[in-house]
Design goal:
Layout (H helix, E strand, L loop, with lengths): L4 E5 L6 E5 L11 E4 L6 E5 L5 H11 L1 H9 L4 H9 L10 E3 L9 E3 L7 H21 L9 E5 L6 H11 L3 E3 L5 H13 L6 H7 L5 E3 L3 H25 L9 H4 L1
Parallel strand pairs: 1-7, 7-8
Antiparallel strand pairs: 1-2, 2-4, 3-4, 5-6, 8-9
Helix pairs in contact: 2-3, 3-4, 4-5, 5-8
Length: 256
């Protein structure tokens, strides 16, 4: 990725990479700053936004039966789960999920009721990564906002998740399913260095990977935009509650 493009990984480490032309410090501390593979460029790097850790927990601990059934039918488990999630509207009918990697002290489902079903659980987890990416990008300020968005990773072929990302960001996203994006990047750099390609632009032009563009849907984008201030107030309130001493369950008189 080059300046102006944000790369979002679905699955794996769930990384968000934003190249810049100068070394900068993210005031929100959501990103670290590292050197780019291209000279004179830098990269703001964050992880665990839409990664495998939370997804694996959902599949192994919450919905293992559905995952086992999908495997018996030789289906990709996430595809089977997203069929359930596709029946749920954007915003998951008020159910929010706070990923443990991003909210270690207040993680979990918030707003869960008996009206929610399996599809709500799946969709809220998928939405949590997309909303976290939007929060992180907002923290970079207007001057460093990307203008194009690329989705990669092992789950970049999942239609629903990619559409959720486009809707949550209210931006078109280009998705290229690729579980080994890092290895491909290294190969392109090496090929350029030894003269197989004239330049990195030439290497990218000759790389043949299927790409799908997802356009944001107006109603869904509006629903996610309305959720952002709610999410901010909710996490602030939960964090404030964590700092308060736990109430005593029994008075001193009762224990005496």
């Amino acid at each position: 990725a080059t300046p102006g493009t944000a790369m979002i990984e679905l699955g794996g480490d769930g990384a968000l990479l934003v190249p810049t032309s100068e070394a900068v410090r993210d005031p929100t501390a959501r990103h670290g700053t590292g050197s780019h593979a291209i000279a004179n460029l830098w990269t703001l790097v964050g992880s665990d936004f839409a990664g495998q850790q939370t997804l694996g927990w959902l599949m192994e601990q919450i919905l293992p039966g559905e995952v086992q059934q999908a495997r018996r039918l030789r289906r990709e488990p996430l595809e089977a789960l997203t069929e359930l999630a596709s029946e749920v509207p954007p915003g998951s009918d008020g159910l929010l999920f706070l990923p443990p990697a991003l909210y270690p002290q207040i993680a979990g489902f918030v707003g869960l009721t008996t009206a929610h079903r399996r599809g709500h659980l799946v969709r809220s987890v998928l939405e949590s990564g997309a909303l976290a990416v939007r929060q992180a990008l907002a923290g970079l300020g207007d001057a460093r906002q990307p203008t194009t968005f690329a989705v990669t990773g092992e789950h970049a072929g999942n239609t629903l998740w990619c559409q959720i990302v486009a809707d949550a960001l209210d931006q078109p996203v280009r998705a290229t399913p690729c579980a080994d994006a890092n290895a491909i990047g290294v190969a392109l750099l090496a090929g350029t260095a030894v003269g197989i390609y004239k330049s990195l632009d030439d290497a990218r032009a000759k790389l043949s990977l299927g790409t799908t563009t997802y356009q944001p849907r107006k109603a869904a984008a509006g629903a996610y935009a309305a959720l952002m201030p709610v999410l901010g107030r909710l996490t602030a309130a939960l964090r404030a509650g964590q700092q308060q001493p736990a109430p005593a369950l029994m008075s001193a008189e009762a224990t005496g």
